[in-house]
Specification:
Number of strands: 0
Helix content: over 70%
Strand content: under 5%
Number of helices: 2
Largest sheet: none
Number of domains: 1
Structural class: mainly alpha
Distance between the termini: 21 Å
C-alpha cells in the first residue's frame, strides 16, 4: 500500500511538472488517502502486537 502511495506521489509530481494540474491534483489526493490508510493500519498492527506481548521493536 505504501508502494502505491509513492507511485501516485511520483505521478502527481511528474504531471504537475508537465502542466497537467487536474491529473496532478487527483493523483496527489489518492496518494494522501493511501498514505493515511497505511499509517492507520501500521498503528493498529503495532498496538495489537504490543497488547499480545510480541514487541515489534
Amino acid at each position: 500500500m505504501l508502494r502505491y502511495a509513492l507511485i501516485f506521489f511520483v505521478v502527481s509530481l511528474v504531471a504537475g511538472a508537465l502542466g497537467f494540474t487536474g491529473i496532478s491534483a487527483g493523483a496527489g489526493r489518492i496518494a494522501k488517502i493511501l498514505f493515511g490508510l497505511f499509517l492507520v493500519i501500521a498503528v493498529i498492527v503495532v498496538v495489537v502486537a504490543v497488547s499480545v506481548g510480541q514487541a515489534v521493536f
